[in-house]
Amino acid sequence: MSESNSIDCRSRTDADQMPFEIDAFFGDELLSRLDEHQSLIAPGAPALGLAELSIEVADDAWTLRWDGDRVHLASGRSAGNRFRLDAQDWTDIVHDQITPMALITAGLVDMSQLGMDQLMNWWVVLRAALDGRPVPTNADIAVKAAHRSFEPDDDPSDMRGFLEDAGYLHIRGVFTPEEMSVIEADYATAAENFAEGDFLGIRAATADGERHLVRMIAFERFSAAMRELKADPRIAQIAAMTGCDLVPPSPTVALDKPVGIVNGIADTPWHKDCSLGRHSYQCCSPVVGFYVTDADADHGHLRVAPGTHRALVWSPDQRGLDLETRDLAARAGDISVHLSCTLHMAVPPTTTPRKVVYTRLDHIDPDPEAAQAGRARLNALRAGARVGGLSAKD
């Protein structure tokens, strides 16, 4: 793991994960961590509007309360927000294998006595205590540079500096429109291999009831042109620009975004690619988007919140923060790069469908076998919630 490169912010390895007793965690370790990182918690926490939260693990419960300038932790239940989960889920949350959002998305959290904002805002405080990251203020997400686009032959150090600062890049004309036309033609051929119900082929419906194939995972299995582009030196140059040791591109996810989707998700709302878990094991990974068609107000486009890759931000409406957002218009053949921790969303098309293919450039795992085992839990939750097997998506 790199200490000098700001996009490699990994702080854990799966091989180092240690079991713990939950009673001892609440009675000793969490109190110690809250005290140790009080200076990182106190500046930002008051703006979160924290109400009491009871964490109920099996038959035991502990209540968190913001009291003056610090967190107060006591055993027992509160009459307010109640977060109920089993011991394995809590262990995985503490180890950052999953987040509360992963459990919510999978339908495993009783929300009848729990506000999502309260749960996720307390999660920010918990991660600050356990990971030594600040509860964010506006200063933590401030970006130096205004939006700009780059050309392929621009200075790589300028691109890297912008990516580290803003959390995204737009590079014009990396590929030709003709190269993208070949990829677009492969969409129809590939689609024949994704039957209804295939987990690797996600569908969504328009108002007329027609179900559209909007996501094809591992698209390159059916596109020789996509396989060639993944291995193209132009992508290798983007990986080298980051200054990180990255593995070859992950399986591609081909997105087809029709106009007027009313059932299912073709255009994902605000999220980080690590929003379901494992931030401290794999972030920030660059996610590369190949613009098969144009992206603009008519086609839809990517929207990012610059600077959020540096901070514990789970929502664009997170209390205490004034997030800037930027829209990324692009032409066929352009490339976008967003970091896995950058908050982003897809703006739906209004008149013309959009096609884009994503792949992720992951950091090298120090222990690939342990990392694979660590990912199994999160992948199981993703499968149960039909989120998909890859995070490379907008």
In short:
The chain is an alpha+beta fold and 394 residues long.
Secondary structure layout:
Blueprint: H1 22-36, H2 38-41, E1 53-57, E2 60-67, E3 70-75, E4 81-85, H3 87-94, H4 100-105, H5 116-131, H6 138-141, H7 156-166, E5 168-171, H8 177-191, E6 201-206, E7 211-217, H9 224-230, H10 233-241, E8 253-257, E9 261-263, H11 279-282, E10 286-291, E11 301-305, E12 326-328, E13 335-339, E14 343-347, E15 354-360, H12 368-385
Parallel strand pairs: 1-4
Antiparallel strand pairs: 1-2, 2-3, 5-13, 6-7, 6-9, 7-8, 8-15, 10-13, 10-15, 11-12, 11-14
Plain-language structure description:
By secondary structure, this protein is an alpha+beta fold. The protein has two domains: 14-138, 2-Layer Sandwich (Nonspecific Lipid-transfer Protein, Chain A); 143-385, q2cbj1_9rhob like domain (Jelly Rolls, Sandwich), CATH 2.60.120.620. Helices cover 30% and strands 20% of the residues. The protein has helices at 22-36, 38-41, 87-94, 100-105, 116-131, 138-141, 156-166, 177-191, 224-230, 233-241, 279-282, 368-385; strands spanning 53-57, 60-67, 70-75, 81-85, 168-171, 201-206, 211-217, 253-257, 261-263, 286-291, 301-305, 326-328, 335-339, 343-347, 354-360. The chain has an eight-stranded antiparallel sheet with strand order 5-13-10-15-8-7-6-9. A four-stranded mixed sheet has the order 3-2-1-4. The two termini are 26 Å apart.
